[in-house]
Amino acid sequence: MNRKPLVGVVVGIFAVIILVVSILPGSDFLKNIVPKDVELPGSLSTISSEIKPLGIQLSDISVLSVSEKETTLEFEFDVSNPNNKPILLEMISFNIFENDIKVGYGEIGERLSGQYTSSNYYTVLSDSSLMVHDKVTIKNTGNNPEFWLTLQQGTPEWRIKGEAFYSTTSAFSGLADSVVFDFTK
Predict the structure, then answer these.
(1) Residue 43 and residue 99 in one domain
(2) 66 shares a domain with 25
(3) Which of 59, 120, 171, 173 is the most exposed place for a label (fewest CB within 10 A)?
(4) pLDDT tens-place string over residues 47-68
């Protein structure tokens, strides 16, 4: 029996396995070989480039309504993507402070966990920006009468502290990160 074809098949299988492992997006193999700033085909550019953080800006805070029982605020964030590939904005989570006292919190989107079962996220296209907004209702517990007076007078001093969570759209790379922000308005 001739063993040469069997040895050839085994060597071929090992070569394919090594090739696949070396070019997977999570592998550092190509990152060490391919020089930076080289134009690569689409799938290889995902492997060799790093993800830059999203830019988050607080565009606007609007007081939509104020009553003795509750207030409704609207927050608008400008999210910019400096990368050359689309990025998933999973969630923006933020705390709302007025005069350095926490008065509420808000969330836009939903963190991806496990499988891609939720569609409550935003795709920020490459080299572009996206406006996302949300309404937050704050109940009057009676613990902060100064806050309600400030709202009624229209002179709140806002501070918004939070974190934006994002990831790549590639199922293989698993690159996820976040950016922390702190705004006054």
Answers:
(1) no
(2) no
(3) 171
(4) 445 789 999 999 999 999 999 9
**Domain shared by 73 and 153, yes or no:** yes
Full domain range(s) for residue 10: 4-48
Query: Domain check: are 97 and 35 in the same one?
Result: no
Q: Is the pLDDT of residue 24 over 90?
A: no
Q: What whole-number distance in Å separates Cα of residue 84 and Cα of residue 64?
A: 37
